């Protein structure tokens, strides 16, 4: 069904059109009075994917649904305006191949446009503008909105070819693998998944940087029980139906750790202290993952010098060295070694050598 609107007057306001059609011949005063007492029916146009600035992007193979409706029910129809005609059904419409348009059989103020662009439509169709409207057959007023559909090619995301794919990490240490995919034409959100992530490993949420590239990371702190080799495949695709995907193969080697290790920054290995003054500094360290209790020692023994009982704070162990030299030590230099070691039978000590000069 269609209605001619060759005599229609079109008013454009912010991309939304208002139409008025009057078949009767009336004078200017009567026309002004008639129009002032009438309002065009309201119109709502929503789509999946969403309409942004009267434009909707859809990739090849992605279903598009546009819902058209009006809350003004009396004498109102919704449809498509094309070639100077109002269409209230699909018959006679020039739509893209495979596209459908149907008005609700029980409610003429509701209609649905559906289309799934096929491979190649990004070149053959590229974009299609459709003018939806709501028409009041009593007042002969209508309101409308032009929606431009842009068909994007269905292309797979592309991982940055410079990404490092081979990684080595100590058991008990944190691993953060950066992931970057180049900006592409598809605007839908990007999803990362993996079916063989090691236990405890996670993929962060994907965000876009200032250049439009997609960035994320694989985060993992392997346990001592996970020493060995782990192949991991990360799959990327846009969050749309029938989206193509890309994959990145990672190789992660988890090494056994037997030795404790000091945390930087370390105190100076050359210390100077005056007689009667207290020399104090703190050392942070990690235990090997086989151990749960640290053992600290100072060698050779230094009269009056102490190492505090290790305390764990935010997964780091700390011990403090203190010494208050007497006059007996004045003018002398002492070469000391602070040793930290785990309590496991296989544990290897970490050492920190320090020279202390007494003034």
Spatial extent as radius of gyration: 37 Å
Q: How many domains?
A: 3
Number of helices: 2
CATH class of the largest domain: Mainly Beta
Distance between the termini: 105 Å
From the helix content, strand content and strand pairing, which structural class follows?
mainly beta
Q: What would you give as the CATH superfamily of the largest domain?
A: Immunoglobulins
β content, as a range?
over 45%
CATH architecture verdict of the largest domain: Sandwich
Average pLDDT figure: 89
Low-confidence stretches: 5-36
CATH topology label of the largest domain: Immunoglobulin-like
Can you offer a commentary on this structure?
The protein is mainly beta. The protein has 3 domains: 2-152, Sandwich (Immunoglobulin-like), CATH 2.60.40; 166-255, Immunoglobulin-like (Sandwich); 261-358, Cadherins (Immunoglobulin-like). Helix content is 4%, strand content 48%. The chain has helices at 28-36, 121-124, and strands at residues 2-4, 9-13, 16-20, 44-48, 55-59, 64-69, 76-82, 85-87, 100-103, 110-115, 127-136, 141-152, 166-170, 175-181, 190-193, 202-203, 207-208, 214-220, 228-238, 245-255, 261-263, 270-273, 279-286, 294-299, 306-307, 311-313, 316-323, 333-342, 350-358. Strands 1, 2, 3, 5, 7, 8, 11 and 12 form an 8-stranded mixed beta sheet that branches. The longest helix has 9 residues, at 28-36.
In short:
The chain is mainly beta and 359 residues long.
List the helices and strands and how they pair.
Blueprint: E1 2-4, E2 9-13, E3 16-20, H1 28-36, E4 44-48, E5 55-59, E6 64-69, E7 76-82, E8 85-87, E9 100-103, E10 110-115, H2 121-124, E11 127-136, E12 141-152, E13 166-170, E14 175-181, E15 190-193, E16 202-203, E17 207-208, E18 214-220, E19 228-238, E20 245-255, E21 261-263, E22 270-273, E23 279-286, E24 294-299, E25 306-307, E26 311-313, E27 316-323, E28 333-342, E29 350-358
Parallel strand pairs: 5-12, 13-20, 22-29
Antiparallel strand pairs: 1-8, 2-3, 3-12, 4-6, 6-10, 7-8, 7-11, 9-10, 11-12, 14-18, 15-19, 16-18, 17-18, 19-20, 21-23, 23-27, 24-28, 25-27, 26-27, 28-29
